[in-house]
Amino acid sequence: MNVFTNNIIDGYIKWNKNNMISKNFTCGYCGAYVSSDKGMPLVDQGRVYPTESIGVYICTNCYMPTFIYDDIQVPGNRYGVAVSGVPKDVNDVYEEARSCYGANAFTGVVLLCRKLLMHVAVDLGAKDNLKFVEYVNYLNENHFVSVKSHDWVDQIRKYGNEANHEIQVNTKEDAQKIIKFCEMILKMNYEYPSEINDSNDRKNN
What we know:
Blueprint: H1 3-9, E1 18-26, E2 33-41, E3 55-58, E4 65-69, E5 72-74, H2 88-102, H3 106-123, H4 132-141, H5 150-157, H6 162-165, H7 172-204
Antiparallel strand pairs: 1-2, 2-3, 3-4, 4-5
Helix pairs in contact: 2-3, 2-7, 3-4, 3-7, 4-5
Pfam family, one: DUF4145
Protein name: DUF4145 domain-containing protein
InterPro entries: DUF4145 (IPR025285)
């Protein structure tokens, strides 16, 4: 956790909490799905808005602030989950893609995930300087993708080379699909092998 969160937990600082209408949301800072009725509501002297449900909500897990108004949330939910056992440079790009999703930068998500998949394919034995579709095919044909995930592969292939040299605006659904695919690849080829290796090391020691 960050210093701010630790200082709240230790009692050095605190939010001046007001009661608000409870809302459920996924915190953009810590990723926890929480229900909160504490925060700073919007003050509307004209009573135009139901102000108790608009404002800054305090996450009950990390105590960081999130602004919520209807379907607007800032910072937004970072789609996907953290993956362990991944090389730092790969993980940095994956986490940056998740942060782009939280900022509604869906085209940025697709571009980052394409680069990530190309890098991972090379790390797993593919040749340099291939096209994106060729890297996806390599991952599929060499069984770095689950045998029951061919429908996923067909979906991911469509994010080919067009986004580099054409103006291709990607959607929220596009971003979700490619983040989920990257998450699957990273878990199968890095996280799970890393966990079993750690388990074997503990047994040997």
